[in-house]
Amino acid sequence: MTDHLSVQTKDATTVRVWDPLVRVFHWGLVAAFATAWLTADEVQPIHEVAGYTVAGLVALRLIWGFADSRYARFTQFVKGPGATLAYLGSMLRRQEPRYLGHNPAGAAMIVALLLTLSGTAFTGWLMAEPDRVAMLPALPQIVSPAWADDDGDEYGEGGEAEGPLKEVHETLANLMLLLVAAHAAGVVFASIRHRENLARAMITGDKRAPEPGDIT
Ligand code: HEM
Ligand code: HEM
């Protein structure tokens, strides 16, 4: 009874889960990603700075994932397909345990977000200067003979980026929207299921102290 009450009162026992770097990374990423989206094809210099900010934040997070910060470590939360599917199964049966750190489904989404963001930023960087595409091995020709007579220059007459690279960049950016929507839905879902505001926890860093059955 006391336990149940302590969950709802303001002085409930909490534990620190997300370190400052993870929190600054997260909300910085949200801001930079939103800026890159809103300025795409509108204000190119800001678009590029925002895109590079995304890339820098992701690079920092990748390094931090190997550092000694418990719930930030990739080995703490990234699980294989078996464990991830098992967790999704337990979700369907409405029996999924509460994780203090990222749950396996959230972790799979985080991997997808980081990879897609990296791909979006990388293709954007390649596109920004014609010389950069020239540094690539002749991959496009191997992938699609239809592009074999493309001289690799992504720029048309008007100086606008075009061609397969732009298609890839835009497709990845659109895929990001789908992933972010699913990510936010997952956050809302898990928040309701475990009766805690996970978005708020990503701001304060604190979560409700573990209870029996929770996975720490
Ligand atoms: C406003 C919408 C968003 C909310 C409310 C939100 C909330 C959260 C929360 C609560 C977590 C921790 C999940 C957990 O408890 O396991 C998280 C993690 C994460 N989110 Fe979001 N998120 C939002 C938008 C985004 C966007 C737009 C991106 C990417 C551009 C993103 C990328 C990530 C990543 C990479 C993590 C892993 C954090 C880490 O361990 O470093 N999120 N988000
Ligand atoms: C990771 C974050 C990024 C996102 C979400 C993003 C998103 C987008 C989107 C949606 C478009 C299509 C605009 C349109 O034509 O409708 C676009 C175009 C473009 N992006 Fe990005 N981008 C990102 C990073 C970058 C970076 C880092 C660069 C280069 C430094 C870059 C360079 C470009 C260029 C050159 C175009 C083509 C603009 C044009 O000529 O039409 N992007 N981006």
Can you characterise this structure?
With 216 residues, the protein is mainly α. The chain has one domain: Up-down Bundle (Fumarate Reductase Cytochrome B subunit). The protein is 63% helix and 3% strand. It is built from 10 helices and 2 strands, in the order H-E-H-H-H-H-H-H-H-H-H-E. The protein has a two-stranded antiparallel sheet with strand order 1-2. Helix 2 packs antiparallel against helix 3 (44-64), helix 3 (44-64) packs across helix 6 and helix 6 (104-128) runs antiparallel to helix 9. The chain is elongated and about 60 Å long. It starts with a helix and ends in an 8-residue tail after the last strand. 16% of the residues are buried. Residues 1-9 have low confidence and may be disordered. The structure holds protoporphyrin IX containing FE (2 copies). Residues 22, 25-26, 29-30, 33, 61, 72, 102, 106, 110, 113-114, 180, 183-184, 187, 198-199, 202 line the site of one protoporphyrin IX containing FE.
